[in-house]
Write a structure and sequence with these properties.
Blueprint lengths: L2 H21 L10 E9 L5 E8 L6 H14 L6 E10 L5 E10 L2
Antiparallel strand pairs: 1-2, 1-3, 3-4
Length: 108
Amino acid sequence: MSLSSAFAPVEVAHRNQVTRQTFGHLAPSPRKKYKGSLIFTQSEFGELVPIRVSFEGLPDSPWLHQHLLSFVEERATEPGKVYKFEGSYMVFLNGNPSFKGAVTEIQC
């Protein structure tokens, strides 16, 4: 075990605490459904790109951003194709996200 790995759990806990104190007012309310849409793609270089995000009553936050990237990573499988998600987003009490709705390919 390296010295840096010995401190990793403490650093993660501290980072989470600072994030919550700084951006906590922007966090999604647990078990509240936010209806909206998301347009996204994967670039030719493999970057995941949320193009337009709109969920009613939900401000941007570090949690939303991370959840969106995880969602896009699973669905944007072909570089250059543009996709649209329409449905709802919710966060469970344990912090795990749920996206319910349809993902379709947009013809450009």
